[in-house]
Amino acid sequence: MLAFLLRRLVSLIVTVWLASIVVFTVLQLVPGDPALLMLGIDAQPDTLAALRSQMGLDRPILTRYLHWAGGLARGDLGVSLTYARPVADLVAERLAVTLPLSLLSLVLSTVLALPLGLLAAARRGRGSDWAVLGFAQLGVSMPSFWIAILLILLFSLTLHWFPAGGFPGWSAGIGPALQALLLPALALAIPEAAILARVTRTAVLDTLGEDHIRTARAKGVGRMAVLLRHALPNALIPVATVLGLQISFLVAGAVVVENVFTLPGLGRLLYQAIGQRDLIVVQGVVVLLALFVVLVNALVDIACALADPRPPASGNGGAS
Amino acid sequence: MTTAKQRFTLAAFAVLALAAASQAALAQPRTDLVVGMALEPPHLDPTAGAAGAIKEVTYANLFEPLLRVDADGKLVPGLAERWSVSDDGLTYRFALRPNAKFHDGTTADSADVKFTLDRARAAESVNAQKAYFAPIAKVETPDPQTAVVTLSRPDGLFLFHMASGDAAIVAPESAATNKQKPVGTGPFKFDRWVAGDRVVLVRNPDYDGAKPKIDRVTFRFISDPAAQVAALKAGDIDAFTLFSTYEALPEFRNDPAFTVMVGSTEGETLLSTNNARKPFDDVRVRRAMAHAIDRQTLIEGVLYGNGVAIGSHFPPHREGYVDLTGMYPYDPARAKALLAEAGYPNGFDTTLRLPPPPYARRGGELVAAMLAEVGIRAKIEPVEWAAWLEKTFKGKDYDLTMIAHTEPLDIDIYARPDYYFNYRSERFNALNEELNRTQDPAKRNALYGEEQKVLAEDAVNGFLFMLPSVTVQKAGLTGMWVNRPVQANDVTGVSWK
Questions:
Q1: Contacts of residue B411 in chain A, CB cutoff 8 Å?
Q2: Which chain A residue has the Cα nearest residue B407?
Q3: Where's the Solute-binding protein family domain (chain B) (predicted)?
Q4: Is B376 strand, coil or helix?
Q5: Domains of chain A listed by start with CATH number
Q6: What is the nearest CA distance from A60 to chain B, expressed in angstroms?
Q7: pTM (2 d.p.)
């Protein structure tokens, strides 16, 4: 297990370092000057030069990379060129929206998907199975931004229960903040729940056909008990794997839904920063996202290794 | 029985009391305001950035320049309550409001004026309109309430420039942190900024002038057109300014809960043309293009009819405007003849580069189709802002592009030798110099007229239309600006009925 973790750590660091080089290089190649964007179409050459030197853009490329990467290694993400604030603060502020949003939709989708999947598996071929499959088909086919628009139409414009977008900030209180996050979280959760419900159904059905289930049933364990105690734990491995993959998608999907609901999340920060050529912010956010994806994948692998009820294979210290 | 009756009476009484309370609440007009804007300001220091959104939040509300521009485009007192100009047009004397204070409690006096102007014209200045301050030779402070500015050369627009957000008076104590925590002298002060979502300003109780009726104004930033419409319809915002989802306007016009106001910005929308590049260096080609463009169709297609055609680089709502829209009537046959005369009987291939705003993307398609009618085959190249600024504006590497020039009274850009139009005219430059020496309003207006004629005769750019200022607001709200004589959302005169 230790060797497995070490290998994971090394690949994690290398991946993030490579990501830092790629994002830095790509941003150097894209046309656009953050100083010019700040000063607009009446910019005087001397003002432009003054701002460029203030932003540190007049230094050679390698110096700038080393300066930024050095800070990164120390955990310092630098200072935004346009907002003139530390990138870490900006990111923390935006994560305070994106993380709760992703978590909420993760919880919502799991809470929706597991019972539905179990129900469909238990009642395979019957009406409720078809209903769940129908929901799953519909949920997978509808992109979350479209669901978002439908939710706004119903709950904001017709019923006036929720605001049509925006985020009052956590300082406005938990209630209003959660109210602002609920519709977007639901819009994100529905397609995820559809996928998860299908995966859960298939995984449970697969395990139901296995020998140890038949043995348990033969020993007189009830249908429900078999389902919950024997089938579900085994089925959870593929479900957890898919869930792990979906977390990255949730963050990506959050970018789109954040735009529809005008939520100040990480996705919109990245989007705006690219438009304004706020190189320091773009670089910082991309590296953090890379780190996040790599970390989640590693955690899912570890979780699967731990959740596997079979005894660990001897010799190589576990699957990788 | 009695208890039930009592309970009923109590409940009835409670309902009545509630109704009365809500009646009272209804009778009291609202004192807060939520304004929607498409773009979020990158920071809140108007003296250090060109983004219009900075001024749309701060101008006149939070920061005050020496003078202000009002809703009609006139100069009115700002931090200076009076001012005078010497006969030679070189010495400006500003008398400041005696009790003016910054929001942090420090006094706002002539030392702050000197600091502001000297900072804006210094070598390390990052003011987006540094040219406004270039004529200043020195700033003196004979007493705390008086600032005397001496120019090295006459500048007919000096007062107008001193009324821009770029000339907002800032204090040495807070100048460095204004980007995040703006400290001005205006009737509203900064409350908080939920980055990516809103900026909140509250009424400044210590303001020494007339206090606004609104005690709290929230600026919300919504870039997605569908989300803008939804936020208005859901009642989340009270007014959306510079609304550009023109196709949604009939819906709001038909809804008695909303009022739609259509005015004008200062944005002359141009088919900017590289006058140095073949074949556009030939005035016959440029005139042919002018004849090839049907402005009315363009205004219908791009602005759904909410716009005014222009024939030169000057807004119709300003004094000094000359109507030159008839100089090149829409006439494809005439355009083809001119092209043939210039040596292009079969037209030519060119590139039309389009920045992101909808008026450019949508308008560019229409312009390209109109040009194709007369044989000019324009390939459309959509680019984002950063790339547009880099290649087109700074690099001057382009054939044609479409862009609104939103700075007020900016006809002098045609006199700049290195501007991206690559236009050079001795005649125009002479007029511009004379304009700078002239103080008399009537004479200035006549000179503006001459300048407009020169630009139209030379058909420097395709002069298309004024970008409209559309405000969609809740019925019952009064005092929002109809026009945008400067980039501002001045809410100091706003109230609820």
A1: none
A2: A42
A3: 74-405
A4: strand
A5: 1-87 (no CATH), 88-307 (1.10.3720.10)
A6: 19
A7: 0.83
